[in-house]
Each structure stands twice: as structure tokens, then as C-alpha cells.
Design a protein that fits this description.
Elements lengths: L17 H4 L1 H32 L3 H22 L1 H6 L7 H34 L1 H31 L7 H32 L6 H13 L3 H18 L3 H28 L1 H35 L2 H5 L5 H7 L4 H8 L3 H25 L10 H19 L22
Helix pairs in contact: 2-3, 2-5, 2-6, 3-7, 5-6, 5-7, 6-7, 6-9, 6-10, 7-8, 7-9, 9-10, 10-11, 11-15, 14-15, 15-16
Length: about 425
Amino acid sequence: MVYLRRVTPQVPSPPVNPAALDSGRRTAGCLFYALGMVAGAGLLFFTFFVPAVVGDDPGRELGGMFTGALLALPALFLYVWIPWIVDRFDPEPLWTLLGALGWGAIAACGFSAVINSTLGAIGTELGGPQVGNFVSACISAPIFEELFKGLGVAGIAWFLKREFDGVVDGIIYAAFVALGFAGVENVIYYGRAAMQDMGAAGDASALAGTFFMRGLMTPWIHPLFTAMTGLGFGLARETTKGSVRFLAPLGGYVAAVVLHSIWNTAATLSGMLVLVMLPLWFLFVTGFFVIVIVLVRRKGRIIRDHLKDEVLTGHLTLAELELVTSAFSWWQATFTWGGAPARRFVEAASRLALSKWHSRRAAQGHSQTISGAFVAPLRKELQQRRDEMARSLGRALPQPAPWRPTPEQPRPPWL
């Protein structure tokens, strides 16, 4: 006797729309960012600007703030070029970098200033000015400044996962958040020093000394601290282990707080101790930049390794692969491949490689990621960008084709 089993027909799943996968998360991130920025701006306004206007000498105080801005902001725009130049293989979108810079300058500064001032005032009431200064600089500042700066990095890592690929991205975003924070903090410190000099019969020693220490000797102190948090979130993004995803950001934040506290404590207890520490910090910063460069080169190798099969399958030409993986891809795209369309082509190819990398690691760790849904749309985008490049150059470009082995060359020499 034969038994027949009823089979339910399989309905094909609708195609995945990758743009809709993280749209809700991005919307929530925008709301979180807007609320933080508005609150931070209000706190900065009522903490620094209003007291200056209603104080005994508004002209002197506003003049000091203006002097501080003239010294701090041009240097800030110079410093932000360094991390942007370092990350050459997959530069982060300008809008995310500016968002990180703004969060550090406004939200992180606003919240930190109020908390530091409040805890410093409590310490002063309990133990006098020295205790208040110690509590504010050595305890409150490391904990809360690194917390609010770290929230900027955490927001990008969580709400903008497509723009956050690993360790290098974590460090770059952390550097931009910290540079924004340091820029506004420098405006405040330079302004106070300038007001002190205005009351010292034209003596400019306070402002000169402050600018020398903060602007020339230690401009990378804040980025160095917060980069520890960025490193932690970067490790969490790269790993497939749940414990590392939780512990790495926490460990990075703790490292940032410890380094920040050591530096502020040395500056608070003894100015000479800071001078003794400067050579050590220079070595630390130099070593850190070397590590960043090594990590950037690793990221370039990851992109190249995950684009080789795109040449084999006919989605990229070998010349395009060399363009995308060149350390000077931005310049080559701008001046020899058609300008903006070529830069967008490089960006799409890099995103394709990193999406494949995330998908492969997720498969190896038996975890899930949305990165795989972006692979096919990014391949289509490559053809669109190639057509745009051809129109910009005014000539046809070689079209990629699947690689075929020959007796003379059975294996691609560049694999």
C-alpha cells in the first residue's frame, strides 16, 4: 500500500530590501543624536555664555572667549585632517565624521561641563578648593568625559553599523569625537587664560603657557584616551563571541578613564610631573599611531582579499581592483578616473568587500548579520558607478568579464 503525503507548496520569499533593514535603527540614532546635541548646546550656553554676559565685565569675558576661539578652532581644523588621511582604504563618510566631531564638541562637552562643575562644587563645600579641584579634574572628568565621548562612538557602532566595520573605524570615530571635545575645551581654557592676562597689566604668560601645553605639546591627549573606547567597540564589531562584544567596549572605556585620570592627576598635583611625563606620552602617542597605520594596512589587505573573486566572476576589472586597493585611491580616482563618480565607485567596492568580510565571519561564528543583504545591490551599484565614470571621462571603459584560465596562465598571478 502506498501512502501519499500532502506537500505544501513553497512560496518564494520576497526579495530582501537592504535599505529597509537598518532604516529604523538609523532613525532612532538620529533622534538620539538630536536630543543629545540640543541638550548639550543648552548646557554649554547656560554654563559659559550666560554667566559671561551677565557678569561684572561682559566685554572682558566675551573678549577672552573670542581669543580662545581664534586660537583653538583653526588648530582643530588642522588636526582633523590627520585621522582622515590615515584611513585611506575605506574613508568614513564625511557626514558621519562631522557628526562625531559635533557630538564631542557640543553634547559631550555640555554634559561633562555641568557634571564636573557640580561635583567640583560639592568637593569644595566639603573639603575646600583643593579638594574640589581634585574631585573635578581627577575623578569626575575622566569618568564622565570619557563616558559622554564614548557614547558618541557607541551611537555610531550601534545605529550606523554599515559605517562601522572594525577596529580602524572605532579609532577614527573616537579621534573625531575627542578632537571636537578638545577643541571646545581649548576655547574655554584659552579664554580663561586670556582673561587672566587681561587683568595682569598686559602680561600674556598665562595664555602663552596654556597654548604651549594644550595646543602644541599635548593636542592628541584626548584622542589617545578616547581611542581606547573606540578600540573596544571596534573589537566588538569584528568578533563573533558574545562575551567579547560586551567586555571589549567596557575594557576600552576603563582604559580610557585610567589613562585620563593618570594624566589629570599628574597635572593637578604637580606641573613638573607633567613635564616629566611628556617624553613617555610622546612615545605612547607615536607607538599608537604606528599601530593605527598597521591596522589600516590590515584593512587594505582585507578589502583586496575579498575583491579578488569579484575579478574572477566578472564584477571588477584588474585595473579597478588596483584602483580600489591603492593607498592613493582618492587621488587616482579624482585626477585620472573621472573625479566624484570614481570616488563613489571606490567607496562602493570597499563597502562590497567589507560586507562580504562581515558575512563570512558571521557564517564562521554561526551568528547573523545584515551585511550579506548588501552584496548584490553593491555589485549593481558598481556597474552604475562605472557608467558614470565613463560619462565623466568621455570614453568607454573596459567592462569586466569572468576570468578564464589558459594553458599559459592556468592561475591568476595576482591571487
